[in-house]
Task: structure prediction
Amino acid sequence: MLYDAYEMQRSMLAGASAWANVGAEWLGNPANPFAYFGGGPVMASALEVFAHAAAPRGKPHFGLHQTMIDGRPVEVIEEIVLKKSFGQLKRFVRKGVEGGPRLLIVAPMSGHYATLLRGTVERMLPFADVYITDWRDARQVPLSQGRFDLDDYVDYLIEFLHAIGPGAHMLAVCQPSVPAYAVACLMSADKDPCRPKTLTLMGGPVDTREAPTAVNTLATERPFAWFEQNVIATVPATYPGAGRRVYPGFLQLAGFMTMNLGNHLMSHWEMFKHLVQGEDLEAEATKDFYDEYRSVCDMTAEFYLQTIDVVFQHHKLPKGEMTHRGRTVDPGAITDVALLAIEGSRDDISGLGQTKAALTIATSLPEAEKAYFVADAGHYGIFNGSKWRKQIAPVVEKWIAAHD
Result:
């Protein structure tokens, strides 16, 4: 019923958005006298803000067609290296450029598409041969394709590293810090030649007992059964994944929007003022952010619930209790995968110290192979924006170059 109610509301808002867009264009048309005086500009701006907020959204495109290397433009082509049921390994091929560190960027499976890391990829393209985990919306995966949980996530990452080959580096942003770390443990224990040379963890919930945030509190103040009963829904018959049990992306988005509701309201108020004053570039910047932010996808119920249990409620990785298909994930097995932990001092999703814990539990790794960096940034500023481009990315590049 939850998903059906959402779909009905989404359809209604889509129609309202279309009509609001028509109204905004009519009121803003240069041939319309009301576009120049009275309440015309204000009404047009208000309708445009509403139309943008209520518009339905699908999977965004990366749109990275070019990068600059040594002062010259280089064409970039997206290539699918390996395709699986719940995700694919995508490579950004720099046409005519050979060599460079091979970097696997592990995107979060947390309600947003991998394009949330567009800025991360864009900044690393001049430096590295970049790959990314391009996860699929669970509602688009037929039930016949089976299930997908945290163990499968780990399997996918190992398979992706094998596809890239020996000598690659791995960078995990937020949620995948735990499965990426588990991969480093398992592949190190097996002396797998394709284990990453370096693993960079950025704003990840390795140990959520450190500086708990509102997100962590939400996951621990309710019993596990509450999540099973209240946030899991069934995909409607209108999608390929009909009948699949999922944690809907719209619930994840609602949670994040509510957590910082005041900031989001102010952002839309500023957008409205920019439109009224004719400052289109400033308004477009806000629109671009929310186009990505509101583009959400579903997670399988088993993956979401297992993550709640393993990562947030029982802290199994830092306590040495995490298992992968019955096998213990031992942080002490990491002996030669250089670890870099990056945190934001103003991160309200993964608190300060949660990612740094990855260095502490790697008891067999020499201290010289561990590094820690704190940026004056919030959660999204760690991997997007000017702080990422100018302060954080150079640290990542230096770390990778030193171990390539």
